[in-house]
Amino acid sequence: MLDVLIVGAGPVGLTAGCILAQQGHAVRVVRKHPPFTGHSRASVIWPRALEIMESIGVTESLRAMGSHVTRIGYYSSGTSIGRFELDRLDDTAFRFALGVSQHETEAVLEAALRAAGGTVDDAELLALEQDEGHVTARLRRDGADATVSARFLIGADGANSTVRALLGIATHDVGPRVSFRIADAVVDQLPEDEASYCWTPAGGMAIGPHDRGAFRLAHRIAPDDVHDTSVESFQRLLDERGPGGRAPVVRELISTADFQARFAIAERFRVGRCYLAGDSAHVMAPAGGQGMNSGMLDAAALSWRMLEALRNGAADSALAEYDAERQVVIRKIMATAVEHARDGGLRSDEDIAVRDQRYRAMWQNAAQHKDRVARLSQLTVDPARAAGASIPS
Ligand SMILES: Cc1cc2nc3c(=O)[nH]c(=O)nc-3n(C[C@H](O)[C@H](O)[C@H](O)COP(=O)(O)OP(=O)(O)OC[C@H]3O[C@@H](n4cnc5c(N)ncnc54)[C@H](O)[C@@H]3O)c2cc1C
User: Fold this and answer.
1) CA distance 389 to 259
2) Which of 254, 267, 343, 348 ranks highest by number of CB atoms within 10 Å?
3) CA–centroid distance, residue 122 to ligand 1 (Å)
4) Cα torsion 186, 191, 193, 195: sign
C-alpha cells in the first residue's frame, strides 16, 4: 500500500511529492494531462515558496534559469507611485523573487521527486472510496482501469478538480471574474529585476521578467474586445501604458493566451483521509502572482503534517487542523490578490487619485513598505513559519 497517492503533477502535487518522498515515504503522483508547456502560467516564485524550494534542494536549479526580481514597481499613467524593494525583508535568506516559467519549475520538481524514489505517471483518477484506514482510488492508465490503495490522498488536480467533485465539496466565489490576455515575449529596454504593474484609466499592463530575457505581459480584456494577439497590439499597449521614461520594444511573442480568472475557495479542504491543496482548493486571478505560490505553501503545510501522522502512526490530529488553518491563510492571501486586482481596475479620476496617494504613502513609510513586500512574498501568512516549524530535511 502506498503512503500517499497524489492526484496532479502540477507545482503543488510535485512539491508535496518531493517533501514526502524525500522522507522515505512511498509516494505516487498521477497526472491526467502531459506537462503543460504552452504559455508560462505562473511566472514568479516569491520568497516563502523559495524557502520551501530550498528545503527540497531545487533553488540552485531554479536560480540558474530564472530572473532575479528585486523590486515591484507601480506606475499610474507612466508615473512611478511606488517601488517596493524586496531587500527590505530581513528575516529570510531570499530577499528576491524568481521569475521562472511554471513548466520549468515543474520539470525541476519532477526530477527531484524521481531522484527521491517517488513515481510520476500518466493516469486519470476516476473514482475513490475511503474507510478509517485507507483510501482506494480507481485509475485509468493506457485504457485499462486499476485500483490503488494509500493511507492518504492529496487532490492537487487543479481548478476543475476531480477529487473535489468526488468528495462533493462545493466552491464559492469570493471576488470578481476577470478576463486576461497574456503573452510571453522578448522585449528590449525593460529591467530584468523588476515586476511592474502599470495602471492607466484605460486599463493596465503587468510586466514580469522570467526565464532570463523573456517577459510576461498581461492585460485585462473585455468580452467584446477584438481578438488581437499581434506584436503590434502588445507594443501599442506598452507604449500607451508602460512605465514612463523607457521605450520598450517588443521583439517577439513566444506565446499568447486569453483566459478568464476567478477568485473562489472550496468550502472544505478535507474529507476523511483525502485533502485538497492548490488550485483544487482555491483559485485566484494572477494579479500579484499569488496562486501557485499559495498552493506550494498548502503542499508544505499538508506534507509536514502528513509526515507527523505517518511517522507516529497516530491519530492524525495535526492533520485535522490543516483545513481550518489553510482556510484562514488562504483568505488572507486572497484578500491581498483581490485588493491588487481592484486597485488595477480603477477608472475614475477620484478613485485613481486616492489609490495613487495610498501607494506613495506606503512606499515612503518604512513599516508599510516592508509589510507590502512581506505580504506579497507570503512571509507573514504562514503559521508554520511563524512558529519556527520547518520541513524536516
Ligand atoms: C495564465 C495564468 C497565469 C498565472 N500566473 C500566475 C502567477 O504569476 N503566479 C502564481 O502564483 N500563479 C499564477 N497562475 C496560477 C497557477 O498557474 C496555478 O495556481 C497553478 O498551476 C496551480 O497548481 P496546481 O498544482 O494546484 O494545479 P495545476 O497546475 O492545474 O495541475 C493540475 C494537475 O492535475 C492533473 N489532473 C487533473 N485532473 C486529474 C485527474 N482526474 N486525474 C489525474 N490527474 C488529474 C493535471 O494533469 C495536472 O497535472 C496563473 C495561471 C494562469 C492560467
Assistant:
1) 37
2) 343
3) 16
4) negative
Return the C-alpha cell found at 63: 536560480
Please tell me the distance between residue 382's alpha carbon and the centre of ligand 1 in angstroms.
21
User: Averaged over 299-328, what is the pLDDT?
Assistant: 88
Residue 237 is placed in which grid cell?
499597449
Instruction: Please report where in the chains the cell 480568472 appears, as a residue.
Output: 261
- Checking if the pLDDT of 327 tops 60, the result is yes
Residue 255 in any domain: the answer is: no
**pLDDT at residue 311 tops 50:** yes
102 in Cβ contact with 42 (< 8 Å):
yes
pLDDT at 190: 93
Task: Decide if pLDDT at 169 tops 70.
Answer: yes
Distances in Å between the Cα of 95 and the Cα atoms of 46, 50, 98 are: 9, 10, 10
Q: Identify the CATH number of the domain in which residue 314 sits.
A: 3.50.50.60
Model confidence, pTM: 0.95
pLDDT tens-digit profile of 171-219? 999 988 889 999 999 999 999 999 999 999 999 999 999 887 799 999 9
Name the residue at shortest CA distance from atom 20 of ligand 1: 292
Task: Identify the domain containing residue 286 by its residue range.
Answer: 2-66+100-175+263-345
54-66: per-residue pLDDT in tens?
A: 999 999 999 999 9
Whether residue 322 lies inside any domain: the answer is yes
Which residues make beta-bridge pairs with 182? Answer: 218, 257
Residue with cell 487543479: 158
For the chain, how many structural domains are there in total?
A: 1
**How far does Cα 301 stand from its chain's mean position?**
15
Phi-psi region of 245 (alpha: psi -120 to 50; beta: other; left: phi over 0): left
Residue closest to 284 by CA, chosen among 259, 256, 303, 304: 259
Cα–ligand 1 centroid distance for 305 (angstroms): 23
Pocket of ligand 1 (CB under 6 A): 7-13, 30-33, 41-44, 102, 124-125, 156-158, 162, 182, 259, 278-279, 286, 289-293, 295
Q: Let me know if residue 220 belongs to a domain.
A: no
